[in-house]
């Protein structure tokens, strides 16, 4: 079996898994679509959130940026992760208790103001588009490479798959697809990190290998 | 949240909110100090302190702040659940 066949098999299998999950978890009501009927276990939800953190952009670009620039790109790590603290402390609990589904809806109703709602929508669109540009570029690069097609074609294939499972399954479909992605990603992240750390520092735990010395030269890594 | 907080104990809603704000305030102070503080602004101050071969500022920027963030989120969830129960506004 040549490399291309293996690629198609693996990419096809993961596509089939994600769409299968979306069909299995398809939404029947608004509450199911936006909030998965609020019936997702916290650990499952955490796995889905973690899959959001370990997205295409962090897998393809951020790892490389941090490896090359070291301390200077710590801001990505801190900003990226610190945002979750703001979300958990300032927004998520109130959104949940208020019983609304989307952030603009919550802000509009909470402050009795249509302009506030509009501002929230604009913020949401700006943030989402910025995020999606990065992610979809990553999708294009990844699928273009694996399926040996142009980046644009790869991007379109990826977009269709995401569209399919997001529209069928709503939040429930997205959550369980993300859980599947989490299992795939955490394996794909950990294995290379362990072996790179082992080769560079002789320490199999990447988080501790950071403090070690480069084995070949005896210099500290950072 | 508002409807259920106000019935019964009239002062409870206000006390609950004050306690809530206190938890958020101190969590955010810690959040800012470990990342922006230790990781960036105070890094020169911490550069003399070594942790396993690297300086403390660098460690906070790369790993420490993230571990603290995780701890903060878990602490917040635990503290707020406790607070919800004390003031009778929990979801059960």
From TrEMBL, chain B:
Q: Which UniProt keywords apply?
A: Membrane, Transmembrane, Transmembrane helix
Any one Pfam family here would be: DUF4212
Q: Where is the Sodium symporter small subunit domain?
A: 14-90
Q: What is the lineage of its organism?
A: Bacteria, Pseudomonadati, Pseudomonadota, Alphaproteobacteria, Rhodobacterales
Task: Output the superkingdom of the source species.
Answer: Bacteria
Q: Which organism is this protein's natural source?
A: Rhodosalinus sediminis
InterPro entries linked:
Na_symporter_ssu (IPR019886)
Task: Give start-end of the signal peptide.
Answer: none
Q: What is this protein called?
A: DUF4212 domain-containing protein
Task: List all membrane-crossing ranges.
Answer: 28-46, 58-78
């Amino acid at each position: 079996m040549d490399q291309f066949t293996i690629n198609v098999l693996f990419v096809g299998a993961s596509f089939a898994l994600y769409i299968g999950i979306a069909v299995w978890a398809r939404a029947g009501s608004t509450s199911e679509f936006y909030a998965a009927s609020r019936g997702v276990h916290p650990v499952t939800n955490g796995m889905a959130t973690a899959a959001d953190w370990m997205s295409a952009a962090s897998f393809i670009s951020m790892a490389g940026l941090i490896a090359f620039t070291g301390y200077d790109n710590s801001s990505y790590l801190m900003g990226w992760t610190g945002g979750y603290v703001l979300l958990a402390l300032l927004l998520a609990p109130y959104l949940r208790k208020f019983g609304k589904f989307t952030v603009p809806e919550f802000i509009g109703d909470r402050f009795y103001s249509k302009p506030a709602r509009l501002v929230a929508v604009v913020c949401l669109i700006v943030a989402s588009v910025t995020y999606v540009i990065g992610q979809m570029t990553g999708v294009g690069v990844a699928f273009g490479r694996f399926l040996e097609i142009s980046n644009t074609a790869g991007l379109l294939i990826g977009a269709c798959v995401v569209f399919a499972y997001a529209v069928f399954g709503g939040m429930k479909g997205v959550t369980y697809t993300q859980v599947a992605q989490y299992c795939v990603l955490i394996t794909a992240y950990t294995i290379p990190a362990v072996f790179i750390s082992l080769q560079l520092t002789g320490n199999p735990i990447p988080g501790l290998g950071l403090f070690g010395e480069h084995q070949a030269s005896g210099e500290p890594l950072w | 949240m508002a409807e259920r907080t106000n019935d019964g104990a009239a002062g409870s809603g206000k006390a609950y909110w004050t306690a809530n704000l206190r938890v958020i305030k101190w969590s955010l102070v810690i959040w800012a100090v470990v990342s922006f503080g230790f990781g960036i602004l105070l890094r020169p101050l911490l550069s003399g302190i070594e942790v396993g071969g690297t300086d403390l500022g660098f460690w906070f920027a790369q790993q420490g702040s993230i571990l603290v963030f995780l701890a903060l989120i878990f602490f917040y969830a635990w503290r707020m659940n406790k607070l919800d129960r004390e003031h009778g506004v929990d979801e059960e």
